C-alpha cells in the first residue's frame, strides 16, 4: 500500500511573524545558522533593538573605566568582554541578513554588497523590506523522514 506524498516539515516558514522578544530569541538561537529564512518582522525587530542599544550607549557616553597613569584590570576585562560581544553581534547579524535574503529568494552572497560604501547598505535595507517569496524554500535545510535532504529527494536521488 502506498501513501500519497506528504508535505515536508518546514521549520522556517516565510512570514513567521515574531514579536520583539521572539526576534531577539531567534537572533541568538539561530546566530550561527546561515541556512533557512528569516521573516521581515524578525529582521526589523532586531534592527530596531540594535539601533536603540547603540543610541543608548552613545547618549550614555559609555566609556571603559580608566585609572590615571594606566589601564585597570577591570577596564581590560570589560574591553575584552565588549570585543567578544561585538564579534558575536557581527556574526549573528550576518547570519540574520543572509537568512532574510533567502526569504526573498536571493542568494546570501548579496550580503557582500555591504562592502560598497553607503549604496551597498542602502541596497540591502531595501532588499530586506521586500515581501517573502515562496521560492525561497529552496534555501531551507530540510530532510525527509529517511534522512535524505529534501533537495536530493526532489531530484530522485537515494540516500547513501
Descriptors for this entry?
160 residues, 5 helices
What does this structure look like?
The structure is a single chain. With 160 residues, the chain is an all-alpha fold. It is built from 5 helices and no strands. The chain has helices at residues 20-29, 40-59, 73-103, 119-128, 150-154. Helix 1 (20-29) crosses helix 2. Residues 8-12 and 151-156 have low confidence and may be disordered.
Concise account of the structure shown:
This protein has 160 residues and is mainly alpha-helical. It is built from five helices and no strands.
Number of discrete helical segments? 5
| Shape, principal axes of CA atoms | elongated
Structural class label: mainly alpha
How is the main sheet built? none
Helix fraction bin = 40-55%
**Cα distance spanning the termini:** 25 Å
* Rg (C-alpha, Å): 20 Å
Q: State the order of secondary-structure elements, H for helix, E for strand.
A: HHHHH
Task: Tell how many strands the DSSP assignment holds.
Answer: 0
Low-pLDDT segments, ≥5 res: 8-12, 151-156
Arithmetic mean pLDDT: 81
Which percent range describes the beta-strand content? under 5%
Amino acid at each position: 500500500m502506498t501513501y500519497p506524498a506528504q508535505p515536508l516539515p518546514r521549520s522556517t516558514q516565510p512570514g513567521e511573524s515574531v514579536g520583539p522578544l521572539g526576534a531577539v530569541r531567534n537572533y541568538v538561537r539561530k546566530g550561527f545558522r546561515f541556512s533557512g529564512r528569516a521573516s521581515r518582522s524578525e529582521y526589523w525587530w532586531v534592527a530596531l533593538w540594535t539601533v536603540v542599544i547603540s543610541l543608548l550607549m552613545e547618549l550614555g557616553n559609555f566609556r571603559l573605566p580608566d585609572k590615571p597613569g594606566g589601564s585597570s584590570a577591570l577596564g581590560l576585562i570589560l574591553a575584552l568582554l565588549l570585543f567578544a560581544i561585538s564579534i558575536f553581534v557581527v556574526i549573528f547579524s550576518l547570519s540574520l541578513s543572509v537568512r532574510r535574503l533567502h526569504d526573498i529568494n536571493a542568494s546570501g552572497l548579496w550580503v557582500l554588497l555591504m562592502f560598497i560604501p553607503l549604496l551597498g547598505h542602502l541596497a540591502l535595507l531595501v532588499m530586506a523590506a521586500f515581501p517573502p517569496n515562496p521560492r525561497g524554500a529552496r534555501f531551507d535545510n530540510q530532510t525527509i523522514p529517511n534522512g535524505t535532504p529534501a533537495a536530493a529527494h526532489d531530484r530522485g536521488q537515494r540516500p547513501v
